[in-house]
Amino acid sequence: MATRRKDECERRFSENYRGRYAGGTLIVCPLSTMGNWEEQVATHVRARSLSVHAYHGHARCKNPKKLCHYDVVLTTFNVLQAEYRRETQQLLVEDHGPEENDPSRIVDSSSEEESSTKLFQVPEDPYVSPLLAVRWHRVVLDEAHNIKERRTISSIAAYSLHAERRWCLTGTPIQNRLDDLYSLLRFLHVTPMDNWRVWLTYIGAPFHKNIRALTEDGERLEEGNIGANRVQRLMQSICLRRMKQQIDAKTNRTMIELPPKFETVRWLELADGERRLYNMAEEMARNKFSNMSRNGTLLKNYIHILKIILRLRQLCTHPRLWSDEKWHEAQTLLADNAVAGSAQAAATATTATTALGQSAAGMPRPASEPRTKREQSAPTPVDNKPKRESVPVDPCSIFPASHAPFFDRWADEARVHGAQT
């Protein structure tokens, strides 16, 4: 009930405030490719023939009347998601006694025991996102698989854009499962497959149940799964696919002239510090695998096993890929205590914090590369490294110290007591 009333309130809001100004082309892309789009426009388009605006950061144009005059507007999925969230959050308020005669209010009292009543209401002077206030001539989603989950805020925000033409650019329209494709079809307004029930009936359910087309006599009408065959026919009608070996009809040559590919495998030896860290992590991984095998829980924990293998691969690339926010906390803590002249012992689960004690690997912390032109001109590097989960390792090297910071809950009381004494 609450979802239905919220959708009704948002529909009223969209009819009254969204898509009111006619605009040009909106390109929604990841932040890492925004600079590339600007460079491509400058390279392939005659100078001053197209006006381009990067809708990102504090300097972006927030007036939809001015924004619609740009030929090309570049923005990111995060900006679109944040502005859509701000729009929808203002529609929900809490009220104990709504006025029954107010037509702008939609009340949801799904539970009589609740003391308060959920009230959805369009404010008198609401905030309207400039991106959603414009009815675009064309909307392009670069790396469109970012909206593969149909229930996420980012996907719903993309659905809410008003446009006459819609494009999805992606090299992987299906990433994890076939239903990832539905979200793209919904954004593209491919009727009737943009309806979730229709998708499940004609593609989703037949594919997952492995249903095949049969005649009345039980003979196969066509090879393969019905759902998969329907998806193939659908993609042939709506998808433009460019392949390296594709022949241009005008020149009778391949559309893209690429040099031959050569693959060279070079085996590298890990440094002494890196090898010790890897051997320690590998031994721990083998012990976990053996325990799961003995307990008969191996198949139930295959995701955890894949995660451990990923951590070993990251450790081969660089030890700091195992690091997370605990690196900064440990660095600050040890630096503060070092000023007081006290010995330190760090018992931790992260490779980076282990390296604090004796710098076994001897590698400096790499700085993250800036992702936009504005970040490239910044005086300090921007740390955009995602948080990583740490894999527990037993603090094997114990030495006398006055401080023993423990950053992990896995350490039991006996180990803590042993380190303290």
What do you see in this structure?
The chain folds into two domains: 188 residues, Rossmann fold (3-Layer(aba) Sandwich); 149 residues, no CATH class. It is an alpha/beta fold and 421 residues long. About 20% of the residues have low confidence. The chain has 15 helices and nine strands. Helix 4 crosses helix 6, helix 8 crosses helix 9 and helix 10 runs antiparallel to helix 11.
Number of self-contained structural domains: 2
Quick one: how many beta strands? Answer: 9
CATH T-level fold name of the largest domain: Rossmann fold
CATH architecture of the largest domain: 3-Layer(aba) Sandwich
Supply the CATH class of the largest domain. Answer: Alpha Beta
Percent of residues in beta strands: 5-15%
Q: Using only CA atoms, what is the Rg?
A: 28 Å
Structural class of the helix and strand makeup? alpha/beta
The number of helical segments is 15
Outline type: globular
* Helical content band: 25-40%
H/E series, N to C? HEEHEHEHEEEHEHEHHHHHHHHH
Low-confidence stretches: 95-101, 103-116, 341-371, 378-400, 407-415
- N-to-C span: 60 Å
Biggest sheet statistics: 6 strands, parallel
Q: Averaged pLDDT, please? A: 75
Keywords: ATP-binding, Hydrolase, Nucleotide-binding
Biased composition (Basic and acidic residues): 93-105
Pfam families: SNF2-rel_dom (PF00176)
GO molecular function: ATP binding; ATP-dependent activity, acting on DNA; hydrolase activity
